[in-house]
Design brief:
Blueprint lengths: L14 H11 L28 H6 L9 H10 L1 H11 L17 H9 L7 H11 L9 H7 L6 H25 L8 H15 L3
Helix pairs in contact: 1-9, 4-5, 7-9, 8-9
């Protein structure tokens, strides 16, 4: 399993990465011309870390996906207790770079992803965006554009964890520095910084 850095992060020069971030998030943050997805990170009327709410289903709409009616019923009513227990098992949000152990198939994060994907109409992209809404520092967003740019079509989570931890967490620390330089709020996680750079770069390539 491999993880390929976007071209904008292949050198030590931050200029290209900062430009991509500003094009997506706006200058200032959420200023004129920002992408709809920029609202995902701070869209909330209250934090509910241990259960899915209607706010989560609204937030993912900014990322150009919509939870099917089957997911609305499952997450908010029919299976809400099951998913709350899975969120409790996964624990509080924390940086993926601090996960020491391999993310094996029985890990709580994978059990959550597997459960989300049992909902009819919910695939990996929607599942990852729902979980990224609840654990933005821990769960990277997966979609075909980002996967193509980072060479993670078959697997993303574990290769990214390894990449973030390499060289004393150098990539993780760089992503946080880029967030500060771009003057983005703390709610924008290191994972989202990487996601946006990869997605914007891929869209520019026509992916």
């Amino acid at each position: 399993m491999t993880f390929r850095l976007p071209d904008a992060l292949q050198t030590s020069d931050d200029a290209a990465a900062i430009m991509l971030l500003k094009r997506y998030f706006g200058t200032p943050y959420l200023g004129p011309g920002c992408a709809d997805g920029a609202y995902f990170d701070t869209w909330s009327t209250g934090s509910e870390p241990m259960r899915f709410t209607a706010e989560d289903l609204i937030a993912i709409k900014f990322l150009s996906v919509e939870a099917p009616k089957t997911a609305v019923r499952a997450l908010l009513r029919d299976r809400s207790g099951e998913f709350s227990r899975l969120l409790v098992d996964l624990g509080p949000d924390r940086d993926l770079a601090n996960e020491v152990e391999l993310l094996g198939p029985t890990w709580a994060g994978w059990r959550m992803m597997d459960a989300l994907r049992t909902i009819p109409g919910v695939g990996t992209t929607i599942a990852s965006k729902l979980l990224a809404r609840k654990r933005p520092r821990l769960r990277p967003i997966w979609d075909t554009v980002v996967a193509a740019v980072t060479d993670t079509v078959p697997a993303q989570w574990e290769p990214l964890r390894a990449a973030l931890r390499a060289n004393d967490c150098a990539l993780h620390r760089r992503l946080l520095r880029l967030r500060n330089v771009a003057q983005l709020p703390a709610e924008v996680s290191a994972l989202r910084i990487l996601d946006v750079i990869a997605w914007r770069e891929g869209k520019d390539r026509g992916l």
